Automatic annotation (TrEMBL):
InterPro entries: TPR-like_helical_dom_sf (IPR011990). Keywords: Cell cycle, Cell division, Mitosis, Repeat, TPR repeat, Ubl conjugation pathway. Pfam families: ANAPC3 (PF12895). PANTHER family: CELL DIVISION CYCLE 16,23,27, CELL DIVISION CYCLE PROTEIN 16 HOMOLOG. The keyword Lipid biosynthesis does not apply. GO terms for cellular component: anaphase-promoting complex; cytoplasm. It comes from Aegilops tauschii subsp. strangulata (Goatgrass). One of its GO terms (biological process) is positive regulation of mitotic metaphase/anaphase transition. This is Uncharacterized protein. The keyword Repeat applies.
Length: 282
């Protein structure tokens, strides 16, 4: 009888644990939904309770993310600093993003850590293995965290009026991961590269086998100074490469707002004002 009662007690404890985990998982789902609906106060309130109950790094990060989105930057920074998880690149990057929002640029760079970059955007720091990244499973479906860190370094140096280092870190960001479009946009929109440097950067990028359309778009974006027939051929390449995504995407890409803006800017730079006007009046 005693053994049976013991087994029953163990079974009840296991069932209670399962129920608690189910309740916590439900709250995590509500936090994610609240963020999706921009109900940040609700997300912060619930994420705080989940993180307190579990202490799980993923839940602490979820709380810090909710605080960041709710624009409670100092509180988010406090949570991240107290987590003792700043070795995780996600935690360190989010802490640096808080410092960016607070315009504390020197502290932002300190949070991102020491690193050097050369004129061509090659990062020269030695990885000593001290960095960790808990969410390895998501890496194939996201922009490389190290690319995001390089980009944030570039923004910090640009804010500190160090245009040379900003340029080098923007180049590093897009070289680490060509999907980091913002880095290339900063380089192009701020006229940070010569025509020769633009071509060299494009040639150095390592695109995935399924990213031919992106390579073609970048060619259109940075080769607007070439002859019209060369640029038009690049836009044709983009339409053809886009068909690798789906049969209808070639036509869709032709009418895509980014592609149209790129074409319009080319026509404007070339003095083809009528073509530019017609394209932007559609």
């Amino acid at each position: 009888n005693l053994k049976r009662r013991r087994r029953e007690g163990e079974g009840d404890a296991g069932a209670d644990a399962d129920m608690r985990e189910e309740a916590v998982e439900r709250l995590r789902g509500v936090v994610r939904d609240s963020v999706g609906k921009h109900l940040y106060t609700s997300a912060i309130f619930l994420a705080d309770k989940v993180a307190a109950a579990t202490g799980d790094p993923a839940d602490v990060y979820m709380l810090a993310q909710a605080l960041f989105l709710g624009r409670h930057f100092r509180r988010a920074l406090h949570v991240l600093n107290n987590s003792r998880l700043l070795r995780d690149l996600r935690f360190r990057f989010l802490a640096a993003k808080c410092l960016e929002e607070l315009k504390e640029w020197h502290q932002c760079l300190m949070m991102l850590g020491d690193a050097k970059v050369d004129e061509h955007g090659n990062v020269l720091d030695q990885d000593d293995g001290s960095d960790i990244y808990f969410d390895k499973d998501a890496e194939d479906h996201e922009i490389n965290i190290k690319s995001a860190i390089c980009f944030l370094r570039g923004k910090a140096y640009e804010a500190l009026d160090n245009r040379d280092l900003a340029r080098q870190w923007y180049k590093a960001a897009v070289k680490v991961d060509p999907l980091c479009y913002e880095a290339l946009e900063c380089l192009v929109d701020n006229y940070m590269l010569t025509c020769e440097e633009e071509s060299e950067l494009l040639a150095s990028l390592k695109f995935g086998k399924e990213d031919g359309w992106l390579s073609a778009f970048y060619s259109c974006l940075i080769r607007k100074h070439e002859k019209e027939y060369v640029v038009e051929a690049k836009f044709k390449d983009l339409e053809r490469e886009s068909c690798s995504i789906s049969p209808s995407s070639g036509q869709m890409m032709k009418n895509n707002i980014d592609v149209l803006a790129c074409k319009a800017e080319y026509y404007h730079q070339s003095g083809e004002y009528q073509k530019c006007f017609e394209l932007t009046s559609v």
